[in-house]
Write a structure and sequence with these properties.
The protein is α+β, with helices and mostly antiparallel strands. Helix content is 25%, strand content 32%. The protein has a domain of 140 residues: 3-Layer(aba) Sandwich (Protein Transport Mog1p, Chain A), CATH 3.40.1000.10. Strand 10 and strand 11 form a beta hairpin. The chain is globular, with a radius of gyration of 38 Å.
Length: 258
């Protein structure tokens, strides 16, 4: 009798142990598995793919073949991308404008290879000199150590006037006027103070020039505006005031000069 009881107890223990083992295999305690940060996993052919475990992809998103992207390959049925147009800044037809036609440096300038829509006449006492950059349409040396520049660029009239004013500190005067010259709207400004220019040069901060002045004019021609600017010591600018006025009076539409 004791032997039979012992056998039954041993069989029961084996059955319980087997059940626990099966249960444990089928339902192990909940564990947290740390998935590796999925920036890229090797793919066939040694290329890299972004997996759906990370990298900012939605759940169940197919892997992105970074190798194909880096080599310029596009997904099946993807429309071609004209890299030439992208590099030149051209947008596809009906594409909305980007940034309103401005860059981090300010309004984008027009192509100055086009002939100006206006003409003007240099005063006899002035001397024409080479343009220091592609933005200039003309550069003149004026008696008294002054420089007169003619350029064409984008942006509104008011924005450009404010940009000119910002080139001065400790303003002595800041006046403006409007007039019509040969059918063209002309806004003139007269600024005096400490000239700091754009604020920076290749060598660092620009050296302030005390008691300087600027006479400027913005000519609106229906397209990009034209800028006439005379800058230098205040006394010389005042002395050249009448010559600059005559210079502005010579401005006319190119069609009218033919």
């Amino acid at each position: 009798m004791p032997m039979r009881f012992t056998s039954l107890a041993l069989i029961s223990a084996v059955v319980v142990a087997g059940s626990l083992a099966v249960y444990g295999l089928g339902r192990s305690p909940a564990t947290t598995i740390a998935l590796p940060a999925a920036s890229a996993t090797p793919a066939m052919g040694g290329e890299a793919q972004l997996s759906d475990n990370g990298g900012g992809l939605p759940p169940n998103h197919p892997p992105i073949d970074m190798g194909s992207m880096n080599s310029g390959a596009l997904p099946p049925n993807h429309p071609p991308i004209d890299m030439g147009s992208m590099n030149s800044g051209a947008l596809p037809p009906n594409h909305p404008s980007i940034g309103g036609g401005v860059s981090p440096q300010g309004p984008l300038p027009p192509d100055n290879s086009d002939p100006p829509a206006i003409v003007w006449k240099m005063p006899d006492a002035w001397q024409q000199t080479p343009n220091p950059n592609a933005m200039r349409l003309a550069t003149y040396r004026v008696p008294g150590g002054l420089e007169v520049s003619v350029s064409r660029a984008g942006g509104s009239t008011e924005a450009n006037i404010q940009r000119w004013i910002a080139q001065f500190e400790d303003l002595d005067r800041d006046t403006r006027a409007e007039k019509i010259v040969h059918g063209l709207q002309v806004v003139t400004v007269d600024i005096a103070g400490t000239y700091v220019g754009g604020g920076m040069t290749m060598g660092g901060p620009a050296e302030p020039k005390h008691d300087w002045a600027m006479m400027g004019a913005i000519v609106e021609s229906g397209g990009p505006p034209y800028f006439f600017k005379m800058t230098g010591p205040a006394g010389a600018v005042v002395a050249a005031h009448s010559a600059f006025d005559r210079f502005l009076e010579s401005v006319a539409p190119r069609s009218a000069s033919r």
